[in-house]
């Protein structure tokens, strides 16, 4: 991608700042799983990084938002599962760089980390969630709301175009006062988080809007794929699911 | 007004100075504490510059004035440390789509020279002392490190030229062409004098000269070098303060009365 305009220069620098990739190369998502996990912990969790998603996913988000603006697809933007806030900060920054003042960014999270999956229904998820990697190395992916707000503020993006929804998705999303959506980015990792988000939010997604599934290919520790496949099948959604990288996928709602 | 260009330059400034999550050391703090803070905040971090935000804003204001008034010439920094201020200059040109001006980065890339102990006792003492040698590593950053830093920000290209060596050897014959901005950050008397002698005549009318260390009287004779040069050349353009140490003037071509 050629980077020429001031907005592109800004967003490129922002991605690198958020992901600690100015001086270090990002962990290789297609590396051996154990090595990738360990590399992610040292590169993102133990640094000032505010996001641990690959640069390709930032590029994809930027493209999706650009398309919705170009095509005048109405609606706010939401991320469900924000960790330290990086991807949501980036959404707010894209709006700001393109002087968009009539769309909000919603950041939904427990701000207490991952929920405990039911071990009978979701044995793999329950095992991983209670295991040492998630609990010790990733600190259950828990980041307090204050810290996330501090990160938004550090990048000059904490303003009234950003809204926070604190709580479990099944409690907050159904009644969240969100109108139409143009982009929904689901990064809740687990089956139920993904299903709860889809159930609550998909009907608010405008035609021409995008839904991004961060964890669709995380088959070694989540049932995210199953949640998505079941939802698409129940709703007869045939819009093509497109891979962003070997784990993240998205589709554009055509009808 | 938050234009994308301003957003880019603001984030670049913060990133270069390690001030996205931390505030910058207070230059008007007690000298010892400020020196220690700078070592922790800049030298021992990924920071690529240790100059204050006010100085970045000053660089930006100067370049915007140069572009607005079409003052001809390239930009040079003499004394670049890890490259931050020069990277910022290149970033300003890039974000404004300027392709016909170069950024010149002049440095020994081996750290500060040794001042003559008889002529410059204060400088010699500080340069050989533990703060400069141990804490600041004699302000040495290699050409390779500096180029890596330019590349990290996507700003290493053929609009950037490097001049490696002592100023007195490299600057007089450097093919810089006319200059619109000269930023002197060589700290010491001789570095400052050598830079002024070699470069000032190339500065276009309407261009700017920034003296980073003019107020560093506790350990340099930079002020003396500048005052003597201005007196010899009868330069009456007002010397304007950026913060408690950095100063600049705009060359108007008006001789002293």
CATH 4th-level superfamily of chain B: Vaccinia Virus protein VP39
Which structural class should the secondary elements of chain A be placed in? alpha/beta
- CATH topological fold name of chain A: Rossmann fold
Q: Biggest interface between protein chains, with counts per chain?
A: A-B, 19 and 20 residues
Shape of chain A: globular
Q: Total number of β-strand segments of chain B?
A: 7
CATH topology-level name of chain B? Rossmann fold
Query: From the coordinates shown, what is the CATH architecture of chain A?
Result: 3-Layer(aba) Sandwich
In DSSP terms, counting alpha (H) and pi (I) runs of 4 or more, how many helices of chain A?
A: 10
Regions with little confidence, pLDDT below 50 for 5+ residues of chain B: none
Strand order, main sheet of chain A: write it out. 3-2-1-4-5-7-6
Supply Rg of chain B.
Answer: 17 Å
Q: Any guess at the CATH architecture of chain B?
A: 3-Layer(aba) Sandwich
> What oligomeric state do the depicted chains represent?
heterodimer
Number of helices of chain B: 10
In terms of DSSP E residues, the strand content of chain B is: 5-15%
Task: Give the SSE layout.
The complex is a heterodimer of chains A (255) and B (257).
Chain A: H1 6-18, H2 33-45, H3 55-70, E1 76-80, H4 86-97, E2 105-109, H5 123-130, H6 132-137, H7 145-154, E3 162-166, H8 169-172, E4 181-186, H9 191-201, E5 205-213, H10 224-234, E6 242-243, E7 249-252
Parallel strand pairs in A: 1-2, 1-4, 2-3, 4-5
Antiparallel strand pairs in A: 5-7, 6-7
Chain B: H1 4-16, H2 31-43, H3 53-68, E1 74-78, H4 84-95, E2 103-107, H5 121-128, H6 130-135, H7 143-152, E3 160-164, H8 167-170, E4 179-184, H9 189-199, E5 203-211, H10 222-232, E6 240-241, E7 247-250
Parallel strand pairs in B: 1-2, 1-4, 2-3, 4-5
Antiparallel strand pairs in B: 5-7, 6-7
Helix pairs in contact in B: 1-4, 3-4, 9-10
């Amino acid at each position: 991608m050629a980077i020429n305009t001031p907005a592109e220069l800004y967003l490129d620098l922002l991605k690198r700042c958020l992901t600690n990739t100015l001086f270090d190369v990002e962990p290789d998502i297609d590396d051996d799983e154990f090595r990738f996990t360990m590399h992610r912990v040292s590169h993102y969790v133990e640094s000032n990084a505010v996001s641990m998603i690959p640069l390709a996913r930032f590029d994809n988000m930027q493209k999706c938002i650009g398309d919705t603006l170009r095509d005048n697809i109405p609606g706010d933007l939401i991320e469900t599962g924000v960790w330290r806030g990086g991807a949501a900060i980036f959404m707010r920054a894209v709006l700001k760089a393109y002087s968009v003042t009539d769309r909000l960014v919603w950041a939904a999270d427990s701000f207490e980390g991952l929920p405990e999956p039911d071990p009978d229904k979701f044995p793999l998820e329950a095992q991983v969630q209670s295991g040492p990697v998630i609990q010790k190395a990733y600190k259950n992916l828990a980041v307090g709301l204050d810290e996330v707000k501090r990160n938004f503020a550090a990048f000059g993006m904490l303003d009234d175009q950003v809204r926070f929804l604190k709580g479990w998705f099944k409690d907050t999303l159904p009644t969240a006062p969100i109108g139409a959506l143009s982009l929904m980015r689901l990064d809740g990792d687990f089956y139920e988080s993904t299903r709860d988000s889809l159930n609550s939010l998909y009907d608010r997604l405008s035609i021409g809007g995008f839904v991004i599934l961060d964890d669709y290919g995380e088959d070694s520790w989540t049932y995210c794929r199953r949640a998505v496949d079941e939802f698409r099948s129940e709703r007869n959604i045939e819009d093509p699911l497109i891979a962003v990288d070997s784990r993240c996928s998205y589709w554009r709602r055509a009808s | 007004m938050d234009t994308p260009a301003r957003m880019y330059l603001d984030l670049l400034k913060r990133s270069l100075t390690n001030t996205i999550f931390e505030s910058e050391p207070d230059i008007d703090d007690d000298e010892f504490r400020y020196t220690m803070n700078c070592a922790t905040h800049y030298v021992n971090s990924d920071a690529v510059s240790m100059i204050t935000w006010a100085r970045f804003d000053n660089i930006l204001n100067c370049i915007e004035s140069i572009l607005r008034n079409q003052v001809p010439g390239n930009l040079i920094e003499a004394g670049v440390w890890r490259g931050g201020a020069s990277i910022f200059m290149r970033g300003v040109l890039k974000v404004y789509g300027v392709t016909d001006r170069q950024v010149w980065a002049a440095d020994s890339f081996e750290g500060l020279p040794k001042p003559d102990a008889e002529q410059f006792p204060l400088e010699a003492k500080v340069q050989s002392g533990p703060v400069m040698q141990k804490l600041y590593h004699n302000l040495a950053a290699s050409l390779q490190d500096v180029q890596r830093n330019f590349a990290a920000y996507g700003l290493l290209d053929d609009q950037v030229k490097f001049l490696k060596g002592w100023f007195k050897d490299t600057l007089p014959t450097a093919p810089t062409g006319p200059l619109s901005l000269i930023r002197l950050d060589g700290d010491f008397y001789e570095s400052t004098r050598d830079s002024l002698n070699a470069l000032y005549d190339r500065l276009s009318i309407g261009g700017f000269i920034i003296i980073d260390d003019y107020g560093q009287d506790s350990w340099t004779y930079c002020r003396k070098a500048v005052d003597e040069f201005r007196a010899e050349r009868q330069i009456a353009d007002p010397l304007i303060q950026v913060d408690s140490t950095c100063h600049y003037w705009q060359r108007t071509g008006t001789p002293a009365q």
